[in-house]
Amino acid sequence: MDKLRTAVVGAGKMGEIHARVYSQLPQSKLVALVDIDLDKARRLAKKHRCEASSSAAELIGKVDAVTIAAPTTEHYALARTFIEADIPVLIEKPIASDADQARAIVELARQKKCLVAVGHSERCNPVVQAIKRLNIEPKFIESTRISPYPFRSTDVGVVLDIMIHDIDIILSLAADKVAKVEAVGIGVIDDNEDICNARITFENGCIANITASRLALKTERKVRVFSKQAYLSVDYLKKTGVVIKAAPNINVIEKIRELKKAGAFALLKQKWSELLHVEKLDVSDAEPLRLEQEAFLRAVADKSLRPEVSAEEGLAAMQCAESILASMRTHSWE
Fold first, then answer.
1. In a domain? residue 255
2. CA-CA to 171 of 20 to 30 Å: which in 16, 50, 119, 122?
């Protein structure tokens, strides 16, 4: 199979990672890097032995697929440039600055029948992939994503910067429409929120509680999922997790019920953790962004396939994020 000619727009931190992965994939030939700071583009292009440019339009006719890793405020204009030229794009999260722009991208891609993927790479985290393989129906999801101040992505608040990852994952797991959103947050460094907590209720009854902060003293990315089939506790950073499935523990539950009924259950002598059948989550060590790009390029090469996160899913995450921001603004701290 001929290699797909790829390019990255944006030579910042995420652009550098995308460029590295594209240069390593056997189905990709990284041909160009674009940044409005030409010197920056040239430095990264030299490292990967490809062309450098300060104009995204110069890529038209030279590439088969493009990743947009520029600031969020530039996503819409850049995406439009490539979609109108029928060049598939992978847009780093969030898909756009707001839901209106995201909706316009989705509609244009539909009209042009052009593939658009969104870079919610956390969906490709092996831990998330392992959760999806369990095929459970969540009733409650609790997610925490906190870290010290990153000194990047300051053009958006914590909701569009890092909470958007968990919003996308939760929408995927809950697999239903959002019925209600409640949120509270505050900006400390500047006007954009730096801390936010949101509670999302879905039409099927599932409830999700999400906390995001970029002012923490440590980095933590964890999620817990409650369902009739299993309880999961996972750590995105460590790529580890445990699963307590209901079926293998039925005998334990029945035994406890019988002992309590007979009055022969010494509560203080029992250790709950020793009674349960606990499994380690089967997690691979694959790099999330590599999985994301591989899925994108497969979809570029074969139109019957889909990327890991579609433009429509990127729009859904953006709409939910805007509902969180709207709810947050209605909460008065005074």
1. yes
2. 16
> In this structure, what CATH number is given to the domain that contains residue 25?
3.40.50.720
Q: Structure tokens of 13? A: 């931190």
For 285-302, b/e burial (b = at least 16 CB within 10 A) is: eebbbbbbbbbbbebbee
Domain of 188, CATH number, reads: 3.30.360.10
Please state the φ and ψ torsions of residue 300, each to the nearest 5 degrees.
-65, -45
Q: Is residue 116 part of a domain?
A: yes
pLDDT in tens, 190-243: 888 999 999 999 999 999 999 999 999 999 999 999 998 888 998 988 888 888
Are 166 and 292 in a shared domain? no
**For residues 124 and 286, what is the distance between their CA atoms, to the nearest angstrom?**
9
Task: Give residue-wise pLDDT tens across range 49-101.
Answer: 999 999 999 999 999 999 999 999 999 999 999 999 999 999 999 999 999 99
Distance between first and last Cα of the chain = 62
State which residues form the domain around 299: 4-121+288-309
Is the pTM of the predicted complex or chain greater than 0.85? yes
